[in-house]
Amino acid sequence: MSRNRTALLLVAGSLLVGAFPATAGAEPVNPLYRLVDTAAQRLATADPVAASKWINGGPITDVQRANQVLDAVGADATAHGIEPRYVRTVFTDQINATEGIQYTRFGQWKFDPPTAPTTAPDLADSRTAIDGYNKTMVDEIALQWNSLHSLTCSAELHEATDAVATERRLDPLYRQALSSATRSYCPAT
User: Between vectors from CA 16 to CA 10 and to CA 22, what angle results, nearest 5°?
Assistant: First the structure.
């Protein structure tokens, strides 16, 4: 068999594989899973950030930092050719959910001072991690733009959120925060 014919058969075979649904028993891939999972990972930074702010006396709501994040993700959205206003709305919800966790932790620590942290990671390290999650999230928003703006978005989002919450064993506070952080993902519904 010639090389060209072999290459043609390989290409045709690979195209056919994608043309058929997954076999029975295979898990379907939710297009929003990675975005929601990254949002959950970003929310997980709330506890170390809250600890740092508790120990160092920083404010939970940091308008300057929030504006830096929103400007950066807006610029990243523009670079990806997607709507910056939508991305800024998504990240405003993410920031608000993260702050909600931090306020809850502060309240818990005020009610029960022995549970308050006595050490915390460097805030700069947490912010570096957050910046990385932000980049991944904007990349995923760009990749999943059509899914996020489809009529099936709400169902896919609900499925992805449940899967992430279960796999990451999120407690009720983090489940509520994840729901809040993702509430603007599906503008078409």
Answer: 125
Q: Please, is 61 exposed, middle or buried when counting C-beta atoms within 10 Å of its C-beta (0-12, 13-18, 19+)?
A: exposed
Tell me how far apart the alpha carbons of residues 123 and 54 are, in angstroms, rounded to a whole number: 11
Total-model pTM: 0.83
Q: What is d(CA 2, CA 19) in angstroms, rounded to the nearest whole number? A: 26
Please give the domain boundaries of the chain with CATH numbers for all domains: 30-181 (1.20.59.10)
- Asked if residue 94 lies in contact with residue 44, where contact means CB atoms within 8 angstroms, the answer is no
For residue range 59-102, list pLDDT tens digits in order: 999 999 999 999 999 999 999 999 999 999 999 999 999 999 99
CA distance 17 to 186: 30
